[in-house]
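On clarity, I found the account of how folds are encoded harder to follow than it need be. An entry of this sort, consisting of the sequence and the corresponding backbone structure tokens, reads as follows:
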Amino acid sequence: FTAPFLKLYSSIRITDNLSKNTSYYLEEVLQIKKLLDCSKEDIPKLFVLDEIFKGTNTEERIAAGKSILSYLNISQNMVMVSTHDIELTEMLTQNDFELYHFSENIQNETLNFDHKLKEGPLKTKNAIKILELYNFPEQVITEATRLKNRTN
């Protein structure tokens, strides 16, 4: 991918930093703050973010993530974000974001990816099935399925 007319910023590979005594979440907060500060520059920018704020609780992750993405998505900026948060994707579709997804399928107990970008939100859920494919204990699969079914 090349975009010579855009300045690129990203928040993708963040980790705890034990030598600085900072958690994953704090490292991400500091990185996202840099992106917010840079967003004010008067040049076209592309922001690429992966699973924003996955180091904190669901409710605040979604609220803060939505607010930050909306803040970055102004004027000449472009924002690309990956997320598995269904609630976040629903909020983003109401605010000038277009949704695309990658999907996989399971055939003959094998996980397959076609690596094709598809328009719209992801329609399938198979995280528990993938755990089963990789021989997680039956107790884990049974409880996860029961809990999932209770929330649906």
Residues 122 and 151 are 19 Å apart (CA to CA). The chain has two domains: 1-98, 104-152. The first strand starts at residue 7 and ends at 11. The chain has five helices and seven strands.
